[in-house]
Each structure stands twice: as C-alpha cells, then as structure tokens.
Amino acid sequence: MTDHTPRHGPDCPGCLSRSLVRSEEKLADQYFQPAFEMWLEARLIGERSETSVRYIAESSEETYREYAWALEKFFGPFKLNQIHDGSIRQYQDDRANCRGGWKKKCGQNRIHKEVGLLLRMMRAAHVWTDDLDGAFDQLPLQYSDVPRAMDPEQEAHWLQSCLWDEEWLWVYHYSRVALETCASTIEIRKGRLVDISLRHWTFRVGPEASKNKFRNRTIPLESDEIRESTEFLLRRAFDFGCRRPEHYWLPFGSNSRRGDLDVTRPMTKHCIKGTWNKIRDKSQILWLTPYDMRHTAITRMAEKGTPISTIMAFAGQMSPRMQQHYTTISMQAKRQAAQDVWLKKPVSSVRLLPQYASA
Fold first, then answer.
1. CA dist list (Å): 49 to 145, 241, 251
2. pTM score of the predicted model
C-alpha cells in the first residue's frame, strides 16, 4: 500500500492512489482486470475481516467478481477507453451463444447484469459518453414465471436419491433443512454455529446471509426429521474443525478433495452444485436447483392452507407477485378442505317449515 503523508494533505500519495479521478494511474487507461480491481477497491473499506463498515456487502463483492470473471474472457485485452458500443454488442452475442471462454450459454438477465457492471466502471472512468449511451441499448431484464416446485412424490424421490451414495448424505440433510425452513441457498450456506440453537431448536437468518433487513428472521425447527438433519450437519462441521461461534456449519472446501478447508468462510454455491448435479442426474429431476427447495417448502405450506403471514414469517419478505401466487395455492387448499367437510356431509333430515316449503 502506498505510504500516506502525516494528516493526509491534499497531495497525500496514499489518498491519491485510491482516487478514481486524480490518481496517476487513470482508470480509463487500465486494462479490464486491473481496472476492475481499482474500481472495486474504491468500494471497500480496509481489511474487511476487521471492520463492519462497508460500502458493499461481502455477497455483493463475490457477485461482482463473478461478473468480472465472465467479462474478462472477452474484454481482457481491452483498456477501458478502447471499449465501445460495438464491442459490448459483440460480447452480448458471444456470451449468449457461448462463443469464447465460457463453459455454457448464458441467460439474458445474467448478461444484463454483467454489462451493467462494465457500464458502471466506464462511467466511473468517464469514458461512457452521451453518444455511447444514445447508441447502445442494454438487454432488458426478463421477469420469469414463479420458480418451479416439486410435488410430494418428486420430493420423496429426490430425498431417496440422495441416499444412493454415502458421499451425498450431507445433501440429503441439507435438503431436509431447506424443505422445512423455507430458507434460500445463501441463507443456509452462510449459517454460522451461533445461528443454530439446539436448546431452543431455532435457526437464525442474520444480516450477513439475508438479502435485506426484511429477510432477517428466526425459524423454528420442529420436526424430528429436521432436528436429526441439523444435528448431522453440526456433527459434520465439528469433524471439519468448526468450534467457534463465528465458524460456518457448511465451511468452505468441506466438499473438496483438494483439502483447501477454511472454517471461517462459507461453502460456495459451486461446491454445492458439484454434488447436486450428480444427484439430479440420478433422480432425473433435471430442472431442480438448490433454490427450488425454498419454493417447494413454501408451496407445501401453502397447500396446507397456511396463512400468508405465517409463510412470510418462515420465508421472509416476498414480492407481491410471489405472495399472490402462494395465496392462490393456499385458497385452493382451503376450498378443497371445505369441499371435503361440507360437500360430503349426509343429507340433512331437517324439514322446512310449511310457509317456506313452496318458496
């Protein structure tokens, strides 16, 4: 790190090195990868492990790095001031059709977010001009239907498939936790030992794991099955060396054969997908993703006629569109229950009074 002058005067070299405007190393003149690191560093505060003060959450930093990884495959040879609307259009085309260093085709929303990061960097470097802005149109976001949920038979088949291989057993218990808490993938991955109470049988979703403050909540663990799965995952974490309250119960590298274990970091979503995809092939439920477990859990609650307020206490904040979807399922369950009770009653033997008989 560049040394600072006492009291950080206006020409302090350390402070100037962090400026995107006055630094001697101009952002516009940097190749993409160093430009990204320079842009990102301006949004980070010191050592992230030593302070809770931050511009962006750790999850946002992780997401930005994923976008930058994809962008670097195309824009690595470019300086920021060499990128123009034509090259961005070509990036969109190549990314959508997997022409380049990517492993698979990319969806429209992901391309929109990746290009959005690039445009933010170019605006910060003052190389995204009004002319470019008028000449280039971002891909619009696509608002997809409500994610799919497994029916009860598929759910049972998935859990049975998880038991086919001993190395998949942790996914079996992970799935049972997801199916009875309505928690998302990141909320479970970022659970720490301190978040799980065996005394009160609760799972806490705190600020680090939740998308926003409205998703912070404490979820009860009621059934024997989820308690068994919780204990299994905690014993597994203990075997990996998790001891302190701040350690993660699904630690980084806990599903890796390379031995790169780090109990102070959460398991990545890519680590889950490695085993997940094997079970998905075995079960032949090929569309199922880890996040679909959340929607399956919410759907099961709605099918039981659970009020939407109770569902949200488990699942956290949902969009109005999602609330309407699950409210509709809940109403269908209530109608079915009403039919089972009232339409199957024996014909009443009560006779109408004479004055009403001819009405």
1. 38, 20, 16
2. 0.69
